[in-house]
Design a protein that fits this description.
Distance between the termini: 20 Å
Helix content: under 10%
Structural class: mainly beta
Radius of gyration: 38 Å
Shape: elongated
Largest sheet: 31 strands, antiparallel
Length: 939
């Protein structure tokens, strides 16, 4: 459950460690006695021991004193060795200004390689004793160094000049320090510096109580090296209970001297035990300009999830107006949390979105996890213009649950429901929906059984859908679907497989999209009209599909052969049909349909035989000085499945004719789903070749193939199965007459289109991909795609693509979105104007760095068939060490727009990203950049 919070954490961790070091260091130094007796040894060292106070210790000015002090207070009989060496000359430090900062020009090649392209430098911790220590600091001997030291009769030990205290990985420095044994009070002044692994704290003055650990430090600057963050505080107080209080604390990831953005809090309290912090009067400033204020926030100071506000988002749009939301995260327990998101939209009102997540685990219930989300307007929708849901409640519900009872048995609930079909388009959501077109409403369970030789799976599902498209039909619900499938490996060359699927299909009465109408009361908008459908498409009912098969695969290193025989059977028990409607519709849709074929319980049984085989050849070759493994892989597959008449009566519950490409050569059916058991008597021939480098990189792949048909196909799905009369084409987009003609011509061709695929990785940064389907029977292009990409880095990418698809003609639309009549046919039906609808689209996109900081980007997607721009996008991006700014201009057309009279939308979008803090403008521009494929993959 990764969460992103306002980033006080790096600063507070630094201050927390600093204060704890002050306390532990002082406690160890307290072991020094108030006065000492010392003698000079032959080797020049001093040997000092606690005295009786009658002879005060003389000052050792001019010498650097190195005292080794035990981490625990020694007994009075113990002695402490003091090494006297010449004092070092005084050195001034500019740490408070620089904080170990190294400009990019001063970094080594290895260090530069770790930095992003926009980096100005890095915080580099200098080498020092104990830097790499990884043990328990509290158990280590403490080393104290200073230029001068004195121990008086008043129980105060004074250290002066380059005072250094080391213990394990900790290091504390100051110009002067004093410790009062009677009061357990210590003071440090002048260029106070604390270091630990990846941490630097610099201040002017500090004090502490060595018994309670209460400590404070004034005028503090800090840096956290690995996070690249820094900040300051005017005062830090460490209380006896290990909590810390900071005054005027700041945080930024900008380099020293650059306050591109700065987060500050007037009062900050940190609880190290709970891992939680609280800040009052937090302000975000960008270039010293305040842009965000919150009177109170709670935030984490370690990796534990903590209650508090998450990043807010801002946007401005024509539908919602000014749009602001700020999530609040609630950490209820280690296995429970929630997020509450208030959202204000100037034109629509106030919305509240809530998400609750849980994780349960036990011996009885197994592992259970899930989430519940509820969102909705607190008021009725206030937007009037072009809004069919004006003055109505708008809401969204989402519930997901996964239960793993055993390693083999699990159950799942995935349920989402919205108040209307426009909800996601109007508001979007942060709830974790599994799908949004349509919404899933499913409950199911599955069990995995068997062993390595015989594996099987049983699943039971109740699956309902909510259609979220205003101009599309509702899909069928599956209430329920029970499926058993498995494979039995009876031997090395003998495999059995089986499938049993029972599904009951249903849907609401008004499911069939008819058209959109203009409504002006109470406001102007379009409203979708639905009805119960017509003919066989009205069918609901039950379907049983059974399949069993046996295969005899022979696999060798040089090739394979896989003969397979299987039997498919499907049967129905249909309802909601009107026999007259079905017969009238079938006479129009299927001229060869025999009225006596009508039945409410159609069934079909078809045997299938296939023989799939292939060979592998490879050789070593060298091209342009590069060694390759060159493969040659011919493949041949024969497929036979007889035509079983009467399948027109099989409804189309979940089946469609699949598009043709190179992979289609090796499929067992040209249909998806079980409602059409495709007839086939064909031979697929193909050959592919590859060039593979020694490290496995595929430089080149090319494959070609074609299907030879020994018999015309007879099975198809007519586009007229929902047409009431020959005059019912006024609300359609595609001309069903032309679509029917094309399908029937294809079924009579002796060969399929010539299919090929090619992938050429010219370099590791440049690639070319091509898909080509050529209709050899009519000597024309059937389907073509060509895509080029040059990507030398994540910042720089250029894409060029072209897509062509031969399609049936479409109707020309008028300004009212209706088809345009141009005459009357001899049978009295209306003739509508049609035009070419072959898909022909170009897509160009690029991202180009202009300098180290500036980049330009854009996209142009153009519909050549209809001479219109689908999208124009241009923008610039500025990257600094601590923030990123993106500005875009966009002009586009919605997918459901009138092709002949397009209505363009325009927008200007601004995104500001703070390095280390987050994106304060939402994800809108990120979605736009998805169209520039390959750009910023690591961002």
């Amino acid at each position: 459950m990764d969460m992103h919070y306002l980033p006080f954490t790096p600063k507070t961790l630094t201050l927390a460690v600093a204060a704890s070091m002050l306390a532990s260091g002082a406690g160890a130094m307290e072991s020094g006695a108030s006065d000492w007796r010392c003698q000079t040894l032959a080797n020049g060292q001093w040997l000092c021991a606690p005295g009786d106070g009658s002879a005060p210790l003389k000052s050792m000015s001019g010498y650097k004193t190195k005292a080794v002090v035990a981490a625990r207070a020694p007994a009075e009989s113990q002695q402490v060795a003091v090494e006297v060496v010449p004092a070092a000359s005084g050195q001034g430090y500019a740490l408070k200004a620089l904080l170990d900062w190294q400009p990019i020009s001063q970094l080594s090649s290895e260090q530069k390689a770790k930095e992003p392209f926009y980096s100005c430098g890095a915080y580099i911790e200098p080498e020092r004793p104990g830097k790499n220590f990884s043990g328990d600091n509290n158990q280590q001997t403490m080393l104290v160094e200073s230029d001068e030291s004195s121990y008086g009769q008043n129980d105060i030990a004074n250290f002066k000049g380059n005072v250094v205290v080391r213990q394990g990985s900790r290091q504390f420095e100051s110009e002067t320090a004093s410790l009062d044994r009677n009061t357990s009070y210590g003071q440090f002044e002048g260029n106070v510096r604390f270091r630990d692994k990846g941490v630097l704290l610099v201040g002017e003055k500090g004090d502490l109580n060595t018994e309670t650990g209460r400590a404070s430090i004034e005028d503090t600057a800090y840096v956290l090296h690995s996070q690249g963050s820094r900040g300051n505080a005017t005062h830090l107080l460490r209380n006896e209970d290990d909590t810390m209080e900071l005054t005027d604390a700041t945080y930024t990831t900008c380099p020293p001297g650059d306050n591109g953005w700065l987060l500050s809090g007037s009062k900050v309290k940190l609880d190290m035990e709970e891992g939680q912090g609280v800040a009052k009067h937090a302000v975000l400033r960008i270039q010293s300009l305040p842009v965000l204020y919150t009177p109170w926030i709670s935030f984490p100071i370690d990796d534990r999830r903590k209650t508090g506000f998450l990043y807010p988002t801002f946007s401005q749009g024509s539908d919602n107006g000014f749009d602001f939301s700020i999530p609040y995260y609630i950490n209820m327990a280690p296995n429970f949390d929630a997020t509450v998101t208030p959202r204000y939209m100037a034109k629509r009102g106030t919305m509240l979105e809530n998400e609750f997540r849980y994780l349960l685990e036990g011996e009885t219930l197994g592992r259970n996890e899930g989430e519940l989300g509820i969102a909705g307007l607190l008021n009725k929708d206030e937007l009037k213009d072009d809004n069919p849901y004006y003055d109505k409640q708008r809401w969204l519900l989402n519930y997901r649950h996964l239960a793993n009872f055993t390693p083999r048995w699990q159950a799942e609930i995935d349920y989402a429901k919205a108040s209307d079909k426009n909800y996601l388009d109007d508001f979007s959501t942060d709830l974790n929906l599994s799908a949004n077109a349509p919404l899933n409403q499913r409950i199911g369970t599955r069990y995995l059984g068997g062993n390595i030789d015989h594996s099987w799976q049983l699943s039971v599902d109740a699956h309902q859908y909510q259609n979220m498209g205003r101009t599309s039909d509702d899909p069928y619900n599956k209430l329920p679907q029970v499926k058993l499938d498995g494979s039995w490996f009876a031997g090395d060359n003998f495999n059995l497989s089986y499938v049993a699927d029972y599904t009951k299909f249903s849907r609401d009465k008004d499911w069939n999209y008819v058209k959109e109408i203009d409504v002006t009361d109470p406001n102007k908008h379009k409203e979708s009209v639905y009805d119960e459908g017509f003919g066989i498409k009205r069918a609901t009912g039950e379907r049983m599909y059974l399949e069993s098969g046996v295969s005899f695969p022979i696999e060798r290193a040089y090739g394979f052969i896989r003969p397979t025989v299987k039997v498919q059977h499907v049967q129905y028990k249909l309802s909601d049909l009107d026999e007259t409607q079905v017969l009238d519709n079938f006479k129009l849709a299927y001229p060869e349909f025999n009225g006596s074929d009508y039945t409410g319980s159609p069934k079909t049984t078809v045997p299938v035989f296939s023989l799939d085989s292939g060979l592998y050849f490879d050789r070593m070759t060298t091209i342009g000085g590069t060694a390759f493994t060159n493969t040659l892989e011919p493949r041949l597959k024969y497929l036979y499945s007889p035509y079983e008449k009467g399948q027109e009566m099989n409804p189309v519950f979940d089946t469609a004719l699949m598009g043709f490409n190179y992979n289609s050569l090796w499929r067992d059916s040209r249909f998806s789903g079980y409602d059409r058991l495709g007839d086939a008597n064909q031979l697929s021939l193909g050959i592919s070749t590859r060039l593979i480098e020694d490290d496995g990189f595929e430089r080149f792949r090319f494959g070609v193939g074609q299907i030879v048909y020994f018999k015309d196909r007879q099975l198809w799905i007519s586009p007229n199965t929902d047409v009431r009369t020959a005059n019912d084409d006024d609300d359609r987009d595609i001309d069903p007459g032309d679509e029917t003609r094309r399908l029937q011509e294809d079924m009579k061709e002796s060969t399929s289109p010539f299919a090929s695929e090619m992938v050429y990785n010219m370099t590791r940064t440049m690639s070319l991909r091509q898909d080509l389907m050529w209709d050899t029977n009519n000597n024309k292009m059937d389907n073509y795609g060509l895509y080029y990409q040059y990507k030398p880095s994540d910042r720089q990418v250029f894409n060029a693509g072209y897509r062509y698809l031969n399609q049936a003609d479409r109707y020309v639309k008028g300004t009212d979105d209706n088809n345009i009549p141009i005459g009357t046919a001899p049978d009295g039906s209306t003739i509508y104007q049609t035009t070419n609808n072959n898909l022909s689209i170009t897509d160009l996109s690029l991202a180009l760095p202009i300098s180290n900081n500036w980049s330009a980007m854009g996209r142009w997607q153009h519909d050549l068939t209809n001479s219109r721009n689908l999208e124009l996008l241009s923008g610039v991006e500025y990257n600094s060490c601590c923030y990123q700014v993106r500005l875009f201009w966009r002009k586009w057309i919605d997918d459901d727009n009138n092709i002949d009279f397009p209505e363009y939308k325009k927008g200007i979008m601004l995104q500001f990203v703070l390095r280390g803090l987050g994106d304060l403008s939402g994800s809108g521009t990120k979605e736009l950049l998805q169209g520039i494929k390959g750009y910023g993959d690591e961002k």
